[in-house]
Amino acid sequence: MLVLLGSGGAVASDPVAQEVERFAKANGTSRIVPVSFDRGEAPAEWKAAGWFEKVEGIKRAREKREALDSGKPSDDVIERIEKQFSYAKSKDRLRKYRNRTLVTLLFLLAASVMAGLIAVDQSAKAFSAKQEADKAVGEADKKISAAQEQVTKAEGSVVEANRKLKDAEEKTTDAQHKVELANAASADAEKRRSVAVADARRQGEIAAERRREADRQSQIARARQSISRGELAKNQEADRFARPVELGLEASLHHQSFEPDSLLRYGLDRLPRLTASLPHQGPVQAAAFGTDGQTLSTLSSGDNTARVWDVAAKRELSSLSYGPQASVTLSSDGRLIAVHYPKQSGPNQSARVFDLTSGRKDEVTVFNLDEPITSVAFSEGGQYVAVGGAKKGVKVWEIIRMEKAGPTTSLAFQETATIPPSERGNTNALFFSGDGRRLAVISTYFTKDEDDDDISRDAVSVW
Length: 463
Fold this sequence. Notes:
There is one protein chain. This protein is an alpha+beta fold. It folds into three domains: 2-73, no CATH class; 100-270; 294-462, 7 Propeller (Methylamine Dehydrogenase, Chain H). The chain has helices spanning 8-12, 14-27, 52-55, 66-70, 75-167, 172-236, 242-254, 258-270, and strands at residues 2-5, 32-36, 61-62, 284-289, 295-300, 305-310, 315-321, 327-330, 336-340, 350-355, 365-368, 373-378, 384-389, 394-399, 413-419, 426-432, 439-448, 454-462. Helix 5 packs antiparallel against helix 6, helix 6 (172-236) packs parallel to helix 8 and helix 7 (242-254) packs antiparallel against helix 8 (258-270).
């Protein structure tokens, strides 16, 4: 982000023009916020500046000339810079998400193309095997026809032998010889016929086996196609756990192997399962698991009650009720709860801390600020607690004794930091960072708009 102060010195400065040129080339002009020290049109001398073409057309943040002497920018200029910075960050995030989405889509498209090529190759192999089987059947048919021709020839030989036998009645010796020849020819023909029939039967069995193998290869190809679709469905479809189960079952019908079983296990292991249902009498505004994962603490705004549940047994272990006007804060481990009343005054201007796991109804400690407490926050690890008031700032305490596992009857705290009140308004929210080292303080203040009407603004300070 580049904030360009259009003072007289900046107009005549060549280094300023060079710096604006380098920034625009690296980041574009949308990250430049020009500031003029007038309330009307852009000064005429701006057009002579070397950087004017980079900011021409960009809405100026207009500032009073007194700001050059005081060094303190107005709220309008600060707000313009904050909005431009937020817009630039949002644009960067959108560009990053777009690039990630394009890479993911290209990967899924490549996987789909590879799966399709494998399926086409398997189908081609199955078709080739079927053609070979059909060819073998044709050859077997030819051999059967040849055998039938040989049988016909053999039958002709038998007829000829019978004729010769009939003639042998006149010549006994010659007839007997011809009968022997006919019998021998008949036996040889029968032998050849048996061999031809056996060979034809064997060729038919081979052809049938090849047809069965072709069908098996076709089933494998269809199963692998279903597996490929299931693998693609893991990352592509909205219901990406139920769909792999359906495709795994479909693949198992075609072919029993490791791939369909693996696909089924993947989908079944990831289908969500309901383990517990804990009833409440109204909306649940907060919840936190205990450190062992076996207990769950909840805050219900319906009956203004905090509860601790045994998740496995689905039963309530303890509860604590608080008033309808109370503001409550739950620690990240669900053990401690802070209760305060922002609208109260007098002796009850305090935040009371309870241990929900102990089952006790009395507090383990009390924090006082001598004014209404507006916000309380626990750090992520439960090491620190911050308490904020309306006018007197924020105090941070460190919990210095929380090591025992049993119910807590009291806590020891040590004040570690005091944050002064915001110059802009009242503190209304506190947030710790994940490591507990930083604290964000949100304050509300009022300012004037262009019509001189009061409008509320929020300011965030980080400590």
